[in-house]
Amino acid sequence: TDIYQLGVLFYEMLAGNVPFRGGGMGEVTHAILHDEPSPLTLEGPDAALMKDIILKCMAKKPQDRYGSVSLLLDDLKKVRSEGKRG
Predict the structure, then answer these.
(1) How confident is the model at residue 68 (pLDDT cuts 50, 70, 90)?
(2) Quick one: which of 44, 49, 51 has its CA closest to 79?
(3) Range 10-18 average pLDDT
(4) How high does pLDDT run on average in the chain?
(5) Measured CA distances, 72 to 17, 29, 34 (Å)
(6) 12 in Cβ contact with 2 (< 8 Å)
(7) How far apart are CA 48 and CA 64, in angstroms?
């Protein structure tokens, strides 16, 4: 759940809104469990890579998420190194 929560945090920081909406906690919980997050629109040279990282963090099935925070950090380092090249 920590990796999932990091994905939600990244989503909120970059999108400026929450990935799931609803009229109350029940609706939001249902959306988290069953729906895809609101589309994430990012711009810039690392936008596609960052979007992939966020969506992998927020995958519905835990086995589809990063297996560890260190694997997540490895991909985040790619974003930083890609930005230095561009």
Answers:
(1) very high
(2) 49
(3) 93
(4) 90
(5) 22, 25, 24
(6) no
(7) 18
Helices in the chain by DSSP H: which ranges?
A: 2-15, 25-34, 47-57, 69-85
Read off the pLDDT of each residue in 14-33 and give the average, rounded to a whole number: 92
Question: What does the radius of gyration of the chain's CA atoms come to, in whole angstroms?
Answer: 14
Tokens of 57: 């963090």
Residue 67 token pair: 């297996």
Contacts of 28 (CB under 8 A, 6+ apart): 20, 21, 22
Residue 23 CA neighbour count, 13 Å, CB half: 0
pTM value is 0.85
Residue listed under structure tokens 């930005």: 83
Instruction: Report the alpha-carbon distance of residue 14 to residue 77 in Å, rounded.
Output: 17
Query: Tokens for 17?
Result: 């809104």
